[in-house]
Amino acid sequence: MASTSDIRKGLCIKYNHDIYKIIEFLHVKPGKGPAFVRTKLKSVTSGKVIDNTFSAGHKIDDVRVETHKFQFLYNEGETYHFMHTEDYSQIALQKDALDAPDLMKEGEIVTVIINTEDNAPLSVEMPQSVILEVTHTEPGVKGNTATNATKPATVETGARVNVPLFINEGDKIKIETEKGTYQERVKE
């Protein structure tokens, strides 16, 4: 058993007869009244995100987990296939267990969180950022640079990202996986 002081991003807990992963949290100490922790929880079975508030000192039932490195192989519709990088065993996960499936290209190394009680994979964590090639974007309009103007671009995985006007097709860009936002252009 853990308490609210142990809450951190990525912690898996049992709550309402399901296993949830904490994706956001905020400790709040109001001037009047008791402290509490506001959390955003993602179900590892359904992918549904809920908001919940725990009072300070509340006991939470944490799940013991292990993390392993897996390589993304391919996807068939909603099913994504991964291979363990050490023993080459393969697993298949549903799309809603993934954090950012539209930013994952074949060969990407990800971290899979596995429940130690039944060895069931709970969720997949992407690296902090990924480098993808722009496959389609409109050319920037000259003279439209008075502000931080952006334009939509499609990357090799099919995801759409807003990029600065100077990005062209064929450029490789670094994308932050948590927010799905452009970070910088990558030179070869």
TrEMBL record:
The keyword Ribosomal protein does not apply. Involved in peptide bond synthesis. Stimulates efficient translation and peptide-bond synthesis on native or reconstituted 70S ribosomes in vitro. Probably functions indirectly by altering the affinity of the ribosome for aminoacyl-tRNA, thus increasing their reactivity as acceptors for peptidyl transferase. Keywords: Cytoplasm, Elongation factor, Protein biosynthesis. PROSITE patterns: EFP. It is found in: Cytoplasm. Pathway: Protein biosynthesis; polypeptide chain elongation. CDD domains: S1_EF-P_repeat_1, S1_EF-P_repeat_2. This is Elongation factor P. InterPro entries: Elong-fact-P_C, NA-bd_OB-fold, Rib_uL2_dom2, Transl_elong_fac_P/YeiP, Transl_elong_KOW-like, Transl_elong_P/YeiP_cen, Transl_elong_P/YeiP_CS, Transl_elongation_fac_P. Belongs to the elongation factor P family. GO terms for molecular function: translation elongation factor activity. Transmembrane segments: none annotated. It holds the Pfam family EFP_N. It comes from the Bacteria. The keyword rRNA-binding does not apply. Residues 130-185 form the Elongation factor P C-terminal domain. Residues 67-122 form the Translation elongation factor P/YeiP central domain.
